[in-house]
Amino acid sequence: MANIIEGDVREDIGGDEQQIDDMSTQYFDTTFKHLLLPVYAGAYRFNGKVFQIVVNGRTGEIHGDRPYSVWKIAFLVAVILLVIFILVVIFGNSQ
């Protein structure tokens, strides 16, 4: 908290350089607020590895890990390369 206050003081002073000789802070009526949101947490095991997810119930935003299938990714890349090759063969010989 002291770093934030010092940054605010430097920003209020302005200029290129500031020399702060003394800074005294006092805290009054410090409170703690609970923020309760519907949050769903889960974990699952896939191929011997644990994947964890957290879902914000208010916004639906999801954070976590997921498994990637090497075979599916390789198949997709092969299909894309095949389509590019076919397009080059078809449109490359039309000149």
Which stretches are poorly predicted, pLDDT < 50 over at least 5 residues?
A: none
Number of separate helices:
2
Radius of gyration, in Å, reads 28 Å
Into which percent range does the helicity of residues fall? 25-40%
The span between the termini is: 70 Å
Total strand count, please?
3
**Order of SSEs:** HEEEH
Oligomer: single chain
Biggest sheet, spatial arrangement of strands: 1-2-3
Integer average pLDDT:
85
Short description:
With 95 residues, the protein is of the alpha+beta class. It has helices spanning 2-13, 70-92, and strands at residues 39-46, 49-56, 62-64. The mean pLDDT is 85.
SSE topology sketch:
Blueprint: H1 2-13, E1 39-46, E2 49-56, E3 62-64, H2 70-92
Antiparallel strand pairs: 1-2, 2-3
Q: What would you note in describing this structure?
A:
By secondary structure, this protein is α+β, with helices and mostly antiparallel strands. The chain has helices at 2-13, 70-92; strands at 39-46, 49-56, 62-64. It has a 3-stranded antiparallel beta sheet with strand order 1-2-3, with no helix packed on it. The chain is elongated and about 75 Å long.
Task: Please name the defining characteristics of this protein.
alpha+beta, elongated, single chain, 95 residues, three-stranded antiparallel beta sheet
